[in-house]
Write a structure and sequence with these properties.
CATH superfamily: Winged helix-like DNA-binding domain superfamily/Winged helix DNA-binding domain
Number of domains: 1
Structural class: alpha+beta
Number of strands: 3
Largest sheet: 3 strands, antiparallel
Helix content: 55-70%
Low-confidence stretches: none
């Protein structure tokens, strides 16, 4: 994952409603839009907007079952975000010499 891909996905997730939807789908698997609406107490239009953003980003897929839409979290891109952050954490230099202390002059 490139820095730009990471930033694009983080912009998508930088919304409390979308983050709540991602968390709900990760816990519950596939969910009907009606169940998501019940849980979040938002309007159908608001849900449609957020689901369009999430599906366009490839974080969520949907299937139609008659008049109902069922949404599912796409695990791979979410795991890629996690791996991106783990890669940063793995490279963090935790030695005392790596940070500037108040009592030392920074150069």
């Amino acid at each position: 994952m490139t820095n730009q891909e990471f930033l694009t996905n983080m912009k998508v997730l930088n919304d409390e409603t979308r983050l709540n939807i991602i968390q709900m789908l990760s816990k519950n698997g596939t969910m009907c839009a009606c169940k998501i609406l019940e849980e979040l107490h938002i309007t159908q239009g608001t849900l449609s907007h957020h689901m369009k953003v999430l599906t366009t980003a490839g974080l969520v897929t949907f299937t139609r079952d008659g008049k109902y839409c069922n949404y599912t979290l796409v695990k791979e891109p979410v795991c890629e975000l996690t791996q991106f952050l783990k890669g940063i954490c793995a490279n963090v230099n935790l030695s005392e010499n790596s940070s500037c202390h108040i009592s030392k002059k920074c150069s």
